[in-house]
Design a protein that fits this description.
By secondary structure, this protein is an alpha/beta fold. The protein folds into 2 domains: 7-165, Nucleotidyltransferase, domain 5, CATH 3.30.420.10; 166-204, no CATH class. The chain has helices spanning 47-62, 105-124, 132-144, 156-161, and strands at 7-13, 24-30, 36-41, 68-71, 92-95, 177-180, 194-197. Strand 2 (24-30) and strand 3 (36-41) form a beta hairpin. It starts with 6 loop residues before the first strand and ends in a 7-residue tail after the last strand.
């Protein structure tokens, strides 16, 4: 099996608009490395652009050509063809039977795992629900850095790029973060050079 053969994908809608006005997110999973990617969308018609970007990433960064794509036939990615797949869409689509989401089980389980981790991050740090996009992104990063038995206890990231990343700079989600203040915006020479912001929502 080669990378990106197949790719599992599904679309999820959220009941609350995010901080940057996103309403949906789409997940992509490489079947070999189990690495996940997500993209946030403001409307379903943005799916075409997201697919193009994902295909380009696979081709340019990993030298891979996507040939098979496992998706739901129901209310997920498949119905978005009315909004326009990329021109020249040439993947073999393996769609599940309507209302049988378990046939796209890898994407369904991935979304469930992302949602559960994101909710834990959100509740623990007392963030508003509209900040789900930051929680989702951080959750996906953590999942990609978690060893998996199916990969002989490698992480999806290591399985994908064969390079172990340095996690020494990874901070607890929601910890205090100091932002540098340039001299031009300080009140005077005795004013502090940084200020504490409520949350550190950065990920590596």
């Amino acid at each position: 099996m080669r990378l990106f053969e197949p790719v599992h994908s599904d679309l999820k809608s959220l009941p609350v608009e995010s901080y940057h006005w996103f309403k949906y997110f789409i997940v992509f999973i490489d079947d070999k490395s189990l690495h996940m990617w997500t993209a946030n969308l403001r409307k379903k018609s943005d799916t075409s652009k997201v697919i193009k970007n994902f295909e380009a990433m696979a081709r340019i960064q990993h030298g891979a050509t996507i040939k098979r794509w496992q998706i739901n036939q129901g209310g997920g990615v498949y119905q978005l063809q009315s909004h326009g797949y990329p021109k020249g869409f040439r993947y073999h689509i393996e769609q599940s039977i309507p209302h049988q989401h378990q046939q796209n089980g890898r994407a369904e389980r991935a979304i469930q795992t992302i949602m559960e981790k994101a909710q834990c991050l959100c509740f623990t740090t007392c963030l508003p629900q509209s900040w789900w996009e930051f929680c989702m992104n951080h959750a996906v990063y953590l999942i990609n850095q978690t060893p998996i038995a199916h990969l002989s206890w490698l992480t999806p990231m290591v399985s994908l790029i064969k390079v172990k990343l340095d996690l020494s700079k990874l901070h607890v989600f929601g910890c205090g973060a100091y932002v540098f203040l340039p001299e031009e915006v300080r009140a005077n020479k005795l004013a502090p050079k940084s200020e504490l912001r409520a949350y550190d929502i950065h990920w590596i």
